[in-house]
Amino acid sequence: MSISEFQQFFDYCVGTWTTERTYHYLTQQEVERSHTEFTVEAITNDLKIKVLQDNNFDIPNDIDILPGYHLEFQTVSEKDEKVSQQLNMLFVTESTDSTILQGKYLRDRAYEEERPIIADFHFDTSKSELLMTTNYTRVVAVDSITMINPKLRIRKILTYRRPPEGKSLEEVVLVGFGVEQKSE
C-alpha cells in the first residue's frame, strides 16, 4: 500500500462536519446524545515539527509526506453541556503491507487529558477504516472512523477501563456511535 491511499482518506476529511452521536455510559447505565460541529484543516510543516517535538519524536527528513491536521470542535450534549477544543495531530507510519498501514498518532493535546499524547493507529484500505488506540491514565480509547464516501463517515468509540500492565482490554465503560456528514 502506498501512503497516497492514506493521504486520500485525510483529503476527504478536510472540511466542516456535523456529527450526531449517542454515548452509552455502561457503568452508570445512562444514554446521552450530542451534536458536534467540527472543522479539519491541513497543518503547516512548522506545526508538524511542533507536534513531533511536543511528543519527543525525531523529525524525519520527509516531513512533507506525513498527514497532519488541525482539528477544532464544539460539542453540545442533550443536557446542554458544552465542550470546545482544538488540537493538532500527525500520523507517522511505521509499517505497511498490501492493505494495512500502522504507526503512531501524535497529538499536541489529548482529548481526555491536558497533555501531548502518542497513540497507535491502524488503517485498513479494504474497509477505508482508521482505528486509533489511545492509552490514557485511567482508560483506553479505541476510536474507529470508517469513510463511507467523501461526505459521510461512521464513528465508533469503545472506551475500556485501563487494565493492569500486560492484561487485555475487557471492561467497557463507554460506547459511542456517530454519523458524521460533511457540510462544506
Order of helices and strands: HEEHEEEEEEEE
Question: What number of domains?
Answer: 1
CA gyration radius, whole angstroms = 16 Å
The average pLDDT score comes to: 93
Total helical segments: 2
Strand content: over 45%
Uncertain runs: none
CATH architecture: Beta Barrel
* Number of E-state strands: 10
In CATH terms, the superfamily is: Calycin beta-barrel core domain
**Judging from the principal axes of the Cα atoms, what is the shape?**
globular
CATH level 3 topology: Lipocalin
Major sheet: arrangement of strands? 1-2-3-4-5-6-7-8-9-10
Q: Ends: how far apart?
A: 29 Å
Give me the secondary-structure category: mainly beta
Helix content: 10-25%
Overall description:
With 184 residues, the chain is mainly β. The protein has one domain: Beta Barrel (Lipocalin). It has two helices and ten strands, in the order αββαββββββββ. A ten-stranded antiparallel β-barrel has the order 1-2-3-4-5-6-7-8-9-10. The model has no long low-confidence stretch (mean pLDDT 93).
